[in-house]
Amino acid sequence: MTTSITAAGQGVPAAARGSRRNHPLVTVAIMCFGGMVAALMQSLVIPIQPELPQLLNTSSANASWVITSTLLAAAVAMPFGGRLADMIGKRRVLILSSVLLVAGSLATALSSGLLLMLTGRVLQGLAMAFIPVGISMMREVTPPAMTATAVAAMSATLGVGGAVGLPLSAWIAQTFDWHMLFWVSTVLAVLILAAVVFVLPDGAPGAGGRIDVIGSLGLAVGLVAALVAVTKGNEWGWASAETIGLFVGGLVVLLAWGAYELRHPAPLIDLRTSARPRVLITNLATVTVGFGMMSLMLCVPQIMEFPASTGFGLGKTMLEAGLWMLPGGLMMMVFAPTSTVLIRRFGATTALAIGAFVLAGGYVLAYALMGSVWQLAIAYGIGTIGVAIAYASMPTIIMSSVPENETGAAIGLNALMRAVGTTICSALAAAIISAKSATVAGHVVPTQGAFETIFVVAAVAAVVAGVIALMIPKPKVAEAAH
Predict the structure, then answer these.
(1) Are residues 389 and 362 in contact, defined by beta-carbon separation less than 8 angstroms?
(2) Domain boundaries, position 350
(3) Can you spell out the DSSP letters for 223-234?
(4) How many Å apart are CA 153 and CA 144, to the nearest integer?
(5) How many alpha carbons lie under 13 Å from residue 100 in its C-beta half-sphere?
(6) CATH number (domain holding residue 107)
(7) Is residue 1 included in any domain, yes or no?
(8) What is d(CA 158, CA 143) in angstroms, rounded to the nearest whole number?
(9) Any bridge partners for residue 372, and if so which?
(10) Which of 94, 262, 280, 404 is buried most, with the most CB atoms less than 10 Å from its CB?
(11) Nearest to 476 by CA among 401, 411, 405, 399
């Protein structure tokens, strides 16, 4: 089943620009700001997470879906949004993502119960398509000399959004009513929508084509089932019928989806293109880099916030922890130009390996420097530098390996692989913490050994990512040209 969509500018060369123009730096700034705000939605509710059951008058199990629903929606939206952008034009999908962000933020701001809150959080998750579509659009709206830096900066917004969001949302939650979190996000979303509609250039027209409805539904069902099983496995029990049933069922649906896509004349994701060695191996490395990045975001704030009575906690408030982590998050944006230099000097594949090995070094330091907040902040900062370099390299490799009219879908799939890595990391970290906990002052808390184990596992994952990156075949043309 397909639905036909024809772009207004079909037949115009892909490199063509629309009539709307502005300075490339303005365009890059708009898309980076939009990506940062979209990513901020991932960490926005963390300060109020313990109070969500009471605030929404629901159970803890139900309240946990406030975070999980956003992650699942984002995982589905990124590959679909990328394909849609290739068909109807990337600016149109950026507008759609901004509208979803406004609607989702407004719904959560008005919510007082679980249903409206979950609806808003799903819409906010769907808006995450803004990031991969924005990355893929950089090649259309920036001069070649600026493209690599623009892609690096846009890629860094994933980490910067989370880093800025933690202290900002903690301060808002401590100072105002919790609804203010979402009113602020609504205002930011409206600003993004206005900028995209009235300032962002048109970019290249879409190539037209048909929406693969069955393929879209199959990918959504398979992904959601498998990711829910991984996300909830620790809570439900890894051997429970729910976990096994959803995981196996999700894999079966994804296998059937893959067989269907290979036979479809206009698939949602061109699996043959995705199976090219450069694309496939890069996506494998992306999973492990995503795993490594999430370990930082999970462990460092917990270590900083646990009380000193645990024997390893540093006793900081969430706001204080967020402020200590903020410089490390901002380093991702600062190192975007450095990433570009490495890519041009050594190639994107080598830069990806360098980023992964730097990330591994950050975990080694975190393992050794858990004793004080400033030492842990330094280790965190080094880890985020590695993530910045890796995140800048991955889309560069992908864009140099696929046809221009498939860039959006390919970048969306790469973003999905990153989300898969973070989901696996969250599940494994929860299992390690559950297995290595102790009772302190009547409360069950993780032991220092739990975090040390996670750091070791994450360091190994980062090294594996670096080794995989070194196995990526060299391009037929210079990567810097893309």
Answers:
(1) no
(2) 270-482
(3) HHHHHHHHHHHH
(4) 15
(5) 25
(6) 1.20.1250.20
(7) no
(8) 23
(9) none
(10) 94
(11) 401
